[in-house]
């Protein structure tokens, strides 16, 4: 069990280091860095490399933002096989809707509990 935690920490940390280096060395804005990491996750999924990374690193690969790109493409391709071109859009929403809904709900609850600043 300890090696699983170790590799999750290393892989997740490495993804975060890449994002930090993009902002520090390449002077990318956080929005550009976020978009690049999401697209990178989708590209890795397209080449069949992200699922083996998830199998190896577990939460180290599913928690960072690259996993969102992976989920978008994975859902789109899965539903496109079933429903054709319309499945591309519905697949992206179906797979990512729970995470997006949770972020909205918990953000709202946090705003109710704590005093948000303008």
Automatic annotation (TrEMBL):
Q: Does the keyword Membrane apply?
A: yes
- The transmembrane residues are 6-26, 85-114
Q: Which UniProt keywords apply?
A: Membrane, Transmembrane, Transmembrane helix
Task: Give the InterPro entries listed for this entry.
Answer: Spore_V_AE (IPR014204), SpoVA (IPR005562)
- Per the record's keyword annotation, is RNA-binding included, yes or no? no
Under PANTHER family, the record lists: STAGE V SPORULATION PROTEIN AC-RELATED, STAGE V SPORULATION PROTEIN AEB
Could you tell me which NCBIfam families the record lists for this protein?
spore_V_AE
The protein's name: Stage V sporulation protein AE
In its UniProt entry, the species of origin is given as Jeotgalibacillus salarius
